[in-house]
Amino acid sequence: MSETSRQHRARAEWPLWEVFVRSRRGLSHTHVGSVHAPDAALALRNARDLYTRRSEGVSLWVVPAEQITASSPDEKDPFFEPAADKAYRHPTFYEVPEGVRNL
Amino acid sequence: MSGTHDVPGGVPGGAPGGVPGDPHGGRDRPGHRAALALGDDALVLAQRLGEWAGHAPELEEDVALANIALDLLGQARTLLSLVDDEDKLAYLREEREFRNVQLVEQPNGDFAQTIIRQLYFSVYQELLYGQLAGCRPEDATPVAALAAKAVKETAYHRDHAEQWTLRLGDGTEESHRRAQRTVDGLWRYTGELFQPIEGLDIDWDNLRATWTTSVRAVLEQATLRVPEGSQGAVWAAGGGRQGVHTEPFGRLLAELQYLHRSHPEASW
């Protein structure tokens, strides 16, 4: 995309923000979706309205979608397949102590 | 008004107050007059904000305004149920029987007009509910109980209005011009907010001073000019709290009440 058309798109439409919600203390933030907003403060508020209206969370992150570097589907095999046959990497040889949740 | 699952605390007919067999539904008691005034504010503004559904400038803002409308509708249901049957009050009263301030019935206009109306009203409502919620527990009325619960919702409404006022006022030349036009245009409806309401233990002078300070701070930060001149003198003779409403209110009411009046007792 040329710089001019990028600027044009920015004017025509608010940028996209990825939304992460922590559902309760002790858990990680989880990606739940995205919102459009003109800036970070309003992205947070839009995310609040769209993703926590049924008490889904206690904390919110918003991240500019363009700041996320994603792996490409073409790279799926070299990226992920080598891990498939290495069962010893899974912590299945330990006993989980009683009372440990969210492991 | 049934079938809205997002409404907090609004149990139809669940709250005490409406005395069975009382032809006036107890509406003449001071506590009930207060519940009616605050309930009508919330109901009418909810209806106005609901008009944005499907029409807001952005999908996200559509949801934000509808969320605020639902908060207000929930407050209205609780408050009106303190007085009488909520549906009867919402759908079957005539214009002159509504006790909301004229500010909340003003048309949505452009987005700036909706936002400045939200700013003026939500700052007022947050301060009012805050004072009511701060009373001693032994003095707590049902209205104060609702206020304590709703003040957090209202704080969010105020934040939403502030965020947008800053962006519209300090945005483009066009947004600044439109915001200033409505800051001036709606100013004359703000004096009525501080008319004492019988049955509410409120320091009205303090409320007005705090409101003015808060609104002034937001407007100045948004590079908007604070209107000068009196907000109140025009309204000394009466206004929405006495049942006198502006011309657009009739059309709002027609839309609000049409279905119920055409199909009495209709349900989902």
Automatic annotation (TrEMBL), chain A:
Q: A Pfam family in this protein?
A: PaaB
User: Keywords of this protein's UniProt record, alphabetized?
Assistant: Oxidoreductase
- What domain of life does the native source organism fall in? Bacteria
Parts of the chain that traverse the membrane? none
EC main class here is oxidoreductase
Record-linked InterPro entries: PaaB, PaaB_sf
Q: EC number(s) on record?
A: 1.14.13.149
Give the GO molecular function terms: phenylacetyl-CoA 1,2-epoxidase activity
Q: What is this protein called?
A: 1,2-phenylacetyl-CoA epoxidase subunit B
Q: What is the primary gene name for this protein?
A: paaB
